Automatic annotation (TrEMBL):
Pfam families associated with the record: Flavodoxin_2
An MF annotation (GO) of this entry: oxidoreductase activity
Domain of life: Bacteria
Protein name as catalogued: NAD(P)H-dependent oxidoreductase
Alphabetical UniProt keywords: Oxidoreductase
Gene3D superfamilies attached to this UniProt entry: 3.40.50.360
Span of domain Flavodoxin-like fold: 12-188
Length: 191
């Protein structure tokens, strides 16, 4: 039986980086660079590939279907992802799950089969510090709670939701800590 408690290094991993401006980014830029240096995963920079925000559905579906683990990497913005990733989810997942039309009873089941067993892992950076993400704190909810739409989307399409990778309190992250986050992140995706 497959043991889902560990990540498997033989899985093909697609990292969808959804940062609106990677050039001005500190955290996501460094995390992405580490993955690119190691060359073990497919790095797919959504805003650079689609500056006009018109997503090539066929290309993205093919990418999704040819990988076993999908990573959504983004800076938390208004407690969610930047809008182009939401658009990607709306267009790509919807069209896979309801390829034969929403009205057909077996459409969802067929679409679900295509994604069943793939993994979804969310990797985010947040301005808020860890202690702000709790009841009574500035952001009131935990990161797990705020990421529930991603978790339930994974459940709904038959994917396995992995433990998120989080870099919080970005203003307090030293250059040294950022280096170790980058290594930890790449190790997590490869190990
Ligand atoms: C439009 C916008 C909305 C943001 N919303 C949040 C938020 O809801 N919670 C939070 O902790 N940080 C928020 N931030 C801070 C970003 O998460 C932070 O700047 C980012 O993670 C830094 O990553 P980078 O160095 O890769 O750009 C927001 C930033 C922007 C620009």
């Amino acid at each position: 039986m497959k043991n889902h408690s560990n990540l498997h290094s033989d899985l093909k991993t697609l990292v969808i980086v959804a940062h609106p401006d990677l050039k001005t980014s500190r955290i996501n830029q460094r995390l992405t660079a580490e993955l690119e240096q190691r060359g073990k995963v497919t790095v797919h920079k959504l805003y650079e590939i689609y500056p006009d925000e018109k997503i090539d559905v066929g290309r993205e579906q093919a990418l999704l279907l040819s990988h076993d683990r999908i990573v959504f990497q983004f800076p938390l913005q208004w407690y969610s992802s930047p809008s182009l990733l939401k658009k990607w989810i709306d267009e790509i997942l919807y069209k896979i799950i309801f390829a034969d039309g929403h009205a057909k009873a077996d459409s969802h089941a067929k679409g679900r089969d295509k994604l069943k067993g793939k993994e979804l892992l969310v990797a985010i950076s947040t301005g808020g510090t860890r202690s702000m993400f709790q009841a009574g704190g500035r952001h009131n909810f935990t990161i797990s709670e705020l990421l529930r739409p991603f978790q339930q989307t994974a459940n709904y399409v038959g994917m396995i939701y992995r433990q998120p990778f989080v870099v919080s309190g970005i203003l307090e992250v030293s250059d040294e800590q950022l280096e170790s986050y980058a290594r930890e992140y790449a190790d997590y995706l490869e190990s």
